């Protein structure tokens, strides 16, 4: 009998050469504009330069070190992702950005204290040459910070136009641009009338609507300029009808929000394992201590509320208590974040998980993840920049708006209206790689594999 192929043949698949012809080549310079040039941005920028100089390896970056299987297992076709899809080369990436403090990147990196001084000294001239532009900032939305290097404008519309001018000036120096939010967590906001259409949002900019936070002004400016936007924080930013409409209109891809780095990364690994084995979860208590600027901002209850919403939703979507009430209906999920200055960027995420198994007998799991927040975030930021640039050069992906295949990188993935988000890290990984196979005209991988036993 004839069995389905392990590769999951896509009937509509084109030849790789034809598929690649529908993706514009990554010619010239890719400009990266970071909103916020603190711990994450300086770690990203310094890290890319260290890799370019051969001083370090891009560990943690799927685009740089990851491989992708093509065809059957017996075909032995496993290229590096960067050799399979036409990504921008790291040597072609150029950085600039906005920051509420005037320090150059070397000074900011020293202040962040993520990378050691010997590491920074080897690339000091490169970092010193990158000076931030004044930022759009309003202390109402981030109460624990007091910016001194900020733009002045008579309205939020005026500020948006200033950002568009900054983007236009940078676009004249490079070939393509991506904007990345690497700034602080804003206060908790919910979608309102001003967010329901582009017209309503633009009127809100003129009227200084308080429901429009700075991150939304940056997103609007980027999307109006046809520039992809990635959000590394849990702020209400592109997850709005007006932004999704604008993204599709201008062909500037968007994705989820809040980088999946430490504790939530572990949850999206462990929770799928419990569900796969039909083990119950009675409670999951998570607490964090960190001492960087992010920790200081999150010490404010309004900013913490934004982060809490992002972190709490993960388990419900993975465990699906409505489908498995005996296992997950009564789960008690608690998340805490505490500012503790001595730790700096070295965050500790501690989890106590109360599970139960056969006949309801209880068990416990303890996880203590002593992680480096920005070290985990920097390769995520790099991958998103390169993949968003790829998406914009792909005729198939460019005008979709939301790039759900990039859910792999976020605590809060975005989806089309009416769809629940996939939080399971392994489903997200499969979705990402199958999207790359699809746009390159390769067969999708289903892992069925029955033909090996036929």
Name a few traits of the molecule:
Dihydrodipicolinate Reductase, domain 2; alpha/beta; 454 residues; inositol-3-phosphate synthase activity; 17 helices; Rossmann fold; seven-stranded mixed β-sheet
Describe this structure in words.
The protein is α/β, with parallel strands linked by helices and 454 residues long. It has two domains: 16-260 and 375-439, Rossmann fold; 263-371, Dihydrodipicolinate Reductase, domain 2, CATH 3.30.360.10. It is 38% helix and 16% strand. The chain is built from 17 helices and eleven strands. The protein has helices at 16-21, 39-52, 62-65, 81-84, 105-112, 117-121, 124-128, 156-171, 198-206, 214-224, 241-250, 263-276, 293-298, 301-319, 325-328, 373-393, 425-439; strands spanning 30-35, 93-99, 133-134, 176-181, 229-231, 254-259, 280-290, 332-339, 346-356, 362-372, 410-412. The protein has a seven-stranded mixed β-sheet, sandwiched between helices. It has a four-stranded mixed β-sheet with strand order 8-7-9-10. Helix 11 (241-250) links the parallel strand 5 and strand 6 (254-259). Helix 2 (39-52) crosses helix 16, helix 9 crosses helix 11 (241-250) and helix 10 packs parallel to helix 11 (241-250). It is globular, with a radius of gyration of 22 Å.
Q: In terms of structural class, how would the helical and strand content be classed? A: alpha/beta
Shape: globular
Q: What are the secondary-structure elements, in order, as H or E?
A: HEHHHEHHHEHEHHEHEHEHHHEEEHEH
How many H/I helices? 17
Distance between the termini: 7 Å
Number of strands: 11
Strand order of the largest sheet: 3-2-1-4-5-6-11
Query: What is the helical fraction, as a range of percent?
Result: 25-40%
Question: Which CATH architecture of the largest domain?
Answer: 3-Layer(aba) Sandwich
- What characterizes the major β-sheet? 7 strands, mixed
Question: What is the alpha-carbon Rg in Å?
Answer: 22 Å
Q: What is the percentage of strand-forming residues?
A: 15-25%
CATH fold topology of the largest domain = Rossmann fold
Q: State the fourth-level CATH superfamily of the largest domain.
A: NAD(P)-binding Rossmann-like Domain
- Uncertain segments are 1-12
Oligomer: single chain
In total, the number of domains comes to 2
Mean pLDDT: 93
